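ARCHIVE CARD
CATEGORY: sequence design from structure
SOURCE FIELD: tokenized fold
FIELD CONTENT:
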């Protein structure tokens, strides 16, 4: 009977406890309107725990209600969003259309946002065909600025924030979300991969980030590991000042052996990348050719008379990046091109090439591509996707289609200023006391649903 009671207690959800999380990066701040914060991947991971947006995207990229209960497009340049009733911020202040309008205006100064009864009106000189998906981005979180604090309506409130070091969140007792099972979340920032694994093994952490190439080994050793669909784009970025000859850039692009990187280095986790968005978002990855063409690369290198060694800089804190950079250099050598790989700690002033990692911001292909063009990590000019007029025959809700995304992608990559290599999943390992962990396609953490098993005696 005692054993039965114990087993039941192990499987029954329970309230209480603190989830201990470690991250490799750190958000610059918790202000979604701050330019360096709103698009930061670590902020994007944390924001849904504290803040809500008017709209959220489901697993298929479809917009669903959040703080907005409904919405409608009233013209090419104007949308109306009706707010959900009965929502309060973490200090019990009620959500109003005036607060929501001010919050969105702070993040989007180019928009005309104004309250109207229980709704807000968003207008812009530019057409806004896919605005609901844009409003699901973390930088468009709805916040209340009061007494120097930034408050949200999410399932947790900020208890303590030490930039670059630590964030403590406390469960909101009476929000519009159901009360989380855990009482608190403690997040440590700037923890290296080795430190995170050591803390997980010593039971000093409940959730850590891992590299995709660690998934198989940790799974075989009995660890509880999870990975998302591919959400990070790994790509080469060429310096505009040092590599003006397009033949050199194309030659390097033609040497990359993506299948080898995917099969060996990534151990078949993620996806080879030739375009800018993975197949689960677009469904058309097969349209891009990924086979190396070494003979053509040699010809281009000869025509360009490229003989000097080029520098390829990778993130020193990412062991997988070093392996991929070395493999790219090996591939380039087959065409007679010498790439000298250097870690980012070498402080090369203007590297010829950088291996960069870009987190895709949305499951909506139009928004995801637009966000890729915004990031300084790639500095890639992506043609603007322009929607046809609402009155155009056959136009509907999805007026910018996948064919437009495909054409914009090929146009952006035709000069080889960026060379996609792979899409990587977001991978995590959780400790033994974590229960009800849910894998998500985009790698987000749904910690409001997690509960903790009692400590073993």
């Amino acid at each position: 009977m005692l054993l039965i009671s114990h087993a039941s207690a192990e499987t029954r959800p329970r309230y209480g406890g603190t989830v201990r999380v470690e991250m490799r990066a750190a958000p610059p701040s918790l202000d979604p309107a701050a330019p360096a914060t709103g698009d930061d991947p670590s902020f994007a991971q944390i924001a849904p725990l504290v803040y809500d947006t008017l709209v959220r995207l489901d697993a298929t990229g479809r917009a669903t209600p959040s703080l907005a209960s409904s919405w409608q497009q009233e013209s090419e340049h104007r949308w109306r969003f009706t707010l959900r009733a009965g929502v309060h911020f973490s200090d019990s202040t009620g959500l109003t259309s005036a607060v929501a309008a001010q919050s969105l205006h702070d993040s989007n100064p180019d928009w005309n946002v104004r309250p109207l009864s229980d709704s807000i009106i968003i207008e812009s000189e530019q057409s806004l065909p896919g605005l609901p998906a844009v409003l699901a981005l973390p930088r468009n979180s709805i916040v209340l600025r009061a007494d120097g604090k930034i408050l949200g309506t999410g399932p947790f409130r900020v208890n303590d924030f030490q930039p670059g070091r630590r964030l403590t969140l406390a469960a909101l007792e009476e929000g519009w979300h159901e009360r989380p099972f855990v009482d608190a979340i403690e997040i440590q920032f700037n923890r290296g991969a080795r430190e995170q694994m050591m803390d997980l093994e010593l039971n000093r952490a409940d959730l850590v980030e891992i590299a995709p190439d660690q998934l198989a080994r940790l799974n075989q050793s009995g660890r509880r590991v999870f990975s998302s669909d591919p959400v990070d784009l790994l790509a080469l970025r060429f310096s505009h000042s040092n590599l003006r000859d397009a033949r050199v850039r194309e030659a390097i692009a033609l040497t990359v052996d993506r299948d080898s990187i995917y099969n060996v280095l990534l151990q078949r986790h993620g996806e080879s990348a030739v375009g800018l968005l993975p197949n689960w978002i677009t469904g058309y990855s097969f349209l891009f050719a990924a086979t190396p063409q070494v003979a053509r690369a040699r010809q281009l290198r000869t025509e360009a008379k490229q003989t000097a060694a080029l520098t390829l800089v990778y993130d020193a804190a990412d062991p997988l990046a070093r392996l991929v950079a070395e493999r790219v250099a090996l591939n380039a050598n087959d065409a007679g091109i010498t790439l000298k790989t250097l870690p980012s700690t070498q402080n090369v002033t203007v590297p010829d090439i950088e291996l960069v990692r870009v987190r895709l911001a949305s499951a909506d292909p139009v928004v995801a591509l637009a966000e890729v063009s915004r990031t300084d990590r790639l500095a890639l000019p992506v043609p603007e996707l322009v929607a046809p007029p609402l009155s155009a025959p056959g136009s509907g809700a999805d007026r910018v289609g996948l064919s437009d995304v495909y054409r914009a992608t090929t146009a952006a990559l035709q000069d080889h200023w960026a060379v996609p290599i792979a899409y990587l999943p977001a991978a995590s390992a959780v400790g033994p006391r974590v229960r009800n962990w849910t894998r998500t396609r985009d790698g987000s953490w749904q910690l409001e649903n997690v509960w903790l098993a009692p400590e073993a005696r």
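CARD ANNOTATION: Residues 1-5, 393-397 have pLDDT under 50 and may be disordered. The first helix runs from residue 2 to 11.
SHELF: design records, drawer C
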